[in-house]
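protien #1 (seq + structre)
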Amino acid sequence: MADDGNASADLLVIFGITGDLAHKMTFRALYRLERRELLDCPILGVAGDELSLDKLVERARKALDDAGEDIDEDVFERLAGRLDYLHGDVTDSQLYRSLAERIGSDRRPLYYLEMPPALFAPIVENLAEEGLLQRARVAVEKPFGHDLESGRELKSRLRAVLAEDQILLVDHYLGKQPVIELEFLRFANRSLARLWDRDSVAAIHITMAEDLGVEERGEFYDAVGALRDVVQNHLLQVLALVAMDPPVGPGADDLNDKKAEVFRAMPALDPEQCVRGQYRGYTEIKDVAKDSTTETFVALCTEIDNWRWAGVPIYLRAGKGLPEKVTEVRLLLHRVPALAFLPDRRPAEPNQIVLRINPDPGMRLQLSAHGDTWTDIHLDSSFVEDLGEPVKPYEHLLHAALIGDHQHFAREDSVEETWRIVQPLLDNPSEIQYYDRGTWGPEAAQAMLPSDCGWHQPWMPRKTDSEH
């Protein structure tokens, strides 16, 4: 049942190749891998749309155009030459018989399921029925379930026909270069490593803000909400990388063991320490229930009960319709004692370490200085300027999946733990509080933090003259 260790796949089968994810992300990632000469296998698209191979190639080109990709015709022709297409209903066993006839039994395929989560288990079970999983890996997109019970059920059904090392759980935040860079920044720099614990850190803030609303995704979003959409997966995965101890080796399990330790040390969330918000006008969106209580904003307080972080409050917030599109991690360090050599004997403002994940990934060290008044000094690094243009998340993750590198995929035990952590908020959601678009959420989200440790305005990239 297990695949050939970490052997590279010799076929990529994409279920849902005519969908939104393929249009926005997958074709661009495949094109970039082709340009870097990292693709060396055929690609078979599977979907319910009746279209010719020529039409699929047209879709691929349009996806690249819409993404603003500068197309090299030689590269595109090589990519187009890899494509093939199979039409069928993924709930119909005939599709899998056709697939078996098309690819045979000697392949080492990577099946990438860009499909609704409810179809993950049925697709995999149909593949098993036709004997198509013996040497395969299967990649599935988050969400991995809808709550703790459904997450466990999905795991049980997948593991009935797949070994653990055949399953790749895709959370695209784990493919973002600044998230990957966290491990190096923390553990390769003694100046940071010595600050990264409860003795130095007074609080951790993580913000994931979007300035757009739900727009055309009402049917999807109203059944999910901010907690399931980004907190249970993206933000908790980032928190684990922020808080974990150094891995003991280079393997994927070495990394995931340390992340799992963080999740196991976190108590289940307290609904009393959570604020749920909904921007005004949300219920007027197409396919959103008029009496919907789905949150478009969530702010919460949690902790990690271990030796490194005990007593350090951790605040997470995420939402739509906010003033900026930005994701950042902010560590607020303890204040120094009052400075006796100043006339007013005041303590300085606390130093901060800020990692901006997007846009324009970078790191800031905020120090205090004193001229006529207190002044913040910012030591800033732009990763693009200092490290070069990063690999796009799906480019990184698709290549890792093809070569059998599990390093930057979620692991089943961690996913189950994150569902355990958020489950009380799903069972007993706090009442919805309303906020206007263009603000930072309900007033209660500001009030949940102590006055000396409030939310900070996110660190935004400087606008160029053309952006003013």
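ok now protien #2
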Amino acid sequence: MAEGSMDMAELESSFKKFAIHGDTKATGQEMTGKNFVKLCKDCRVIDGKGVTSTDVDIIFTKVKSKSARVITYEQFKQALKELASKRFKGKPEEEALQEVYKLIAGKEPANIGVTKPAKAGAVDRLTDTAKYTGSHKERFNEEGKGRGKVGREDFVDSSGYVGAYKGAGTYDEKVKPDQ
């Protein structure tokens, strides 16, 4: 009998994990219809033959309270009882129920289809400074590190010389002091 109670603890744990899945405000005490369908899909209660997502929706509506949009753990167990007879046709009710519990116990919501971060290839290509040309090339030093503000803004040269003049800074040498 101890094994059965452990299964129930795992079943309740799975119920709570699926109940809070995708909902930041959920407490884990009640489950929405969407999450109930996800639980049935992820745990393979829905097999596409005996049990479809439509069956799951109908059973969810049947066990929930009239005006409620969620089911409690007790209503969840009632729904599983209804699904068990559909999923495992020909098996005794109790045995079918245990099979459904085994499918669900200890499971967590699968994150299949969740958006993954972009691959580094595109980022690497965009940040490869060797491919930068023209004025953008000035933003980086020889190692490819950004030069910050120096690379983005034009600073005014107030030395008195025309920009890019090769003889800049030679005025004092050319003018001889009077003696």
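The mean pLDDT is 80.
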